[in-house]
Amino acid sequence: GFTALIWACKRRMERVAMELIPRMSGGAINKWIKGGKTALILACMNKMERVAMELIPKMSEEAINKWDKDEETALYSACSYKMERVALALIPRMSEEAINKWNEKGYTALIWACKNEMERVAMELIPKMSEEAINKWDKYEGFTALIWACKNGMVERVAMELIPKMSEEAINKWDKYEGFTALIWACKRRMER
């Protein structure tokens, strides 16, 4: 069921959430609603960075690693909503299963980190992720983490870290919009400098 904290995070009531957190029991902080969303997932989805940072040290491993009905974790949400500090705080607490999670659209936290130019997050995620998760591409745009890294100019560090872990199929994948592979994006960005 809904706790006051979950309600405050769902309704973007940051001040209320910040007042509630120190007064709530561990059981209440770690609750989730029917669809699997925790207060932390909701705080990340609503870009409530202060609330998320306050929650992370107080939450159980189970609650930190919880995913919702859409197969999205707090880490996924932090990466998709460009919350770099939150993502970096979450990574050490994530289980192997949760860090490698992808949603039904094929997005992983790593794809979002590369798409949103969160280089530090991507570099922290890569060594912790399975090859299967690293080689995922989204079902809509056809982008891999490698394509996003190259498109966004993160070639020297992120792309070079990804390449040895990528399958031949994923390396040769092209996006659905421009028809570019990661190599084409890397060359294009290099020429634009």
Keywords summarizing the entry:
16 helices, 53% helix, elongated
Please render the helix and strand layout as text:
Blueprint lengths: L3 H7 L3 H7 L5 H4 L9 H7 L3 H7 L5 H4 L9 H7 L3 H7 L5 H4 L9 H7 L3 H7 L5 H4 L10 H7 L3 H8 L5 H4 L10 H11 L1
Helix pairs in contact: 1-2, 1-4, 4-5, 4-7, 7-8, 7-10, 10-11, 10-13, 13-14, 13-16
Radius of gyration: 17 Å
H/E topology pattern? HHHHHHHHHHHHHHHH
Please tell me what the overall shape is: elongated
Number of strands: 0
User: Helicity range of the residues?
Assistant: 40-55%
Low-confidence stretches: none
Would you tell me the overall average pLDDT? 95
The major sheet is characterized as: none
Structural class: mainly alpha
> Alpha-carbon distance between the termini?
53 Å
Tally of contiguous helical segments: 16
Beta strand % = under 5%
Description:
The protein has 193 residues and is mainly α. Helices cover 53% and strands 0% of the residues. The protein has 16 helices and no strands. It has helices spanning 4-10, 14-20, 26-29, 39-45, 49-55, 61-64, 74-80, 84-90, 96-99, 109-115, 119-125, 131-134, 145-151, 155-162, 168-171, 182-192. The longest helix has 11 residues, at 182-192.
TL;DR of this structure?
With 193 residues, the chain is mainly alpha-helical. 53% of the residues lie in helices and 0% in strands.
